[in-house]
Amino acid sequence: MFNNNYTNRLFGRTRGRSKKKINLKNYYATVDKYKFKNFNEKSEYILDVGTGYGETSIFLAKQFPDKIVISCEKYIDGNIILLKNIQKNNINNILLHNGNVYNIIEITNKKYFNLVWIFFPDPWPKNRHAKRRLITCDFLIKIHKTLKENGEIYIATDSTIYVRFILNSICRSKEYFLWVNQSKINLSIKDYFDIETKYYKKAINSQRKPSLFILRKL
Questions:
Q1: pLDDT tens for residues 136-177?
Q2: The pTM is what?
Q3: Is-catalytic flag, 122?
Q4: Of 66, 122, 158, 191, which residue is the catalytic one?
Q5: Which of 29, 37, 69, 155 shows its CA 20 to 30 Å from the CA of 113?
Q6: DSSP assignment, residue 189?
Q7: What is the domain-level CATH number for residue 41?
């Protein structure tokens, strides 16, 4: 189904630094039970990009039980934790895509998503790695094509370098999106959601204030 000849390569680890061994055969067999394979015309979807340890996917699945959450993450250690929490909480509206998000947004020209979440994407802070950052004007435009009317994108980051990069991307795509919470006073995640992911806690413990950007499709 998926075309792997994409030009938008994604970087980052698939395994954590832990030396704990994982039975990959069992892992992929379990993933296959929850694997996203194709869109259903009768369903409504939320895309959760770079889910890390899956906290956001679990949160979204509980908040929107009538919608299917596509959890897009290639980090194996995080997906294992997500799968355990799916089973522990008896959640039946999460599907996994353990690969490139461009697989998802480029397989169709139809508008499937009511909501797209991108919480704490890798900021790639070094200048020589800037091209590796996910949030670009081109990426936002590709997402725009998959959003339903008034669909929204939520982007969170605690990197000041990435904030500037995201602001530039928003400015360049302003004909496609309304920046809903443009006032600085409304940039805090806690103003909107009672959720604390591992990366949110890490930011707070390091005295970095995460910023939230809400974009609505025009």
A1: 999 999 999 999 999 999 999 999 999 999 999 999 999 999
A2: 0.88
A3: yes
A4: 122
A5: 29
A6: G
A7: 3.40.50.150
Q: Which structure tokens are listed for 20?
A: 């704990």
Instruction: List the structure tokens of 179.
Output: 């920046």
Give the whole-angstrom CA distance, residue 73 versus residue 83.
12
Q: Give a yes or no: residue 87 inside a domain.
A: yes
Distance CA 112, CA 5 (A): 23
Residues in contact with 147: Cβ distance below 8 Å, sequence separation at least 6, in sequence order:
111, 113, 114, 116, 153, 217
- Count how many domains the chain has: 1
Report if residue 59 sits inside a domain. Answer: yes
CA atoms within 13 A on the CB side of 78: 26
Asked if residue 42 belongs to a domain, the reply is: yes
In degrees and rounded to multiples of 5, residue 63 shows phi and psi of -70, -35
Based on DSSP, count helices (H) and strands (E) in the chain, helices before strands: 7, 7
